[in-house]
Amino acid sequence: MNDMPSTKGPAAWPRQRLVGLQNSAHRLNRYAITRPLARLIELVIRLVYGAYMPAAATIHRSVHFGHNGLAVVVNRAAIIEEGCFVGSHVVLGGRAPHPGAPRLEPGAAIHTGAKGWGR
Predict the structure, then answer these.
(1) SS3 for 15?
(2) SS3 for 101?
(3) pLDDT one-digit tens code per residue, 97-110
(4) What is the distance between the alpha carbons of residues 10 and 78, in angstroms, rounded to a whole number?
(5) 34-38: Cβ within 8 A, 24+ apart
(6) Model pTM greater than 0.85?
(7) How far apart are CA 86 and CA 75, in angstroms?
(8) Which residue would you say has higher pLDDT here, 100 or 13?
(9) Cα dist. 111→25, 57, 64, 106 in Å?
(10) Which residues are bridge partners to 9 per DSSP?
(11) The sheet that has 73-74: what strands, in order across it?
(12) Are strands 58-59 and 79-80 parallel, antiparallel or unpaired?
């Protein structure tokens, strides 16, 4: 018998700084006085990680981004729930005249190059 814990699945994924930064920006974005700091964190994410994750987007802290979110674009109205995996070069955006953005249910996996539009 092997007593080692399973290394598969969301519970085994390490928490990423990228998600921590975005969650901090999301909390700072709630109040007008701290919104400039949220924008600064968005800029840091853009420059350091090459990803666009606005502070208004809702991303659970257990979400894992492949290759540290390289070239990932997330709409400000998108919601990514717990345990999701998002690969590199993924676009989760809206459709121009129609409101709304994708919502990833818990445990969803979106692999490299996928595009998600609308609701």
Answers:
(1) coil
(2) coil
(3) 777 889 999 999 99
(4) 20
(5) none
(6) no
(7) 14
(8) 100
(9) 25, 19, 11, 15
(10) none
(11) 73-74, 91-93, 115-117
(12) parallel
The size of the chain, in residues, is 119
- 57 burial (CB, 10 Å; 0-12 / 13-18 / 19+) is buried
Residues 67 and 91: their CA atoms lie apart, in Å, by 15
- Residues 56 and 79: their CA atoms lie apart, in Å, by 10
Q: Quick one: what percent of the chain has pLDDT higher than 90?
A: 71
Alpha helices in 1-119 (DSSP H): 17-28, 35-49
Q: Which tokens hold the place of 27? A: 């909390």
Residue 73, pLDDT score: 94
Q: How confident is the model at residue 91 (pLDDT cuts 50, 70, 90)?
A: very high
Asked if 102 contacts 115 with a C-beta cutoff of 8 angstroms, the reply is no
CB atoms near residue 63 (< 10 Å): 24
Q: Distance between CA 89 and CA 41 in Å, rounded?
A: 21
Q: Are 70 and 50 in contact (CB under 8 A)?
A: yes
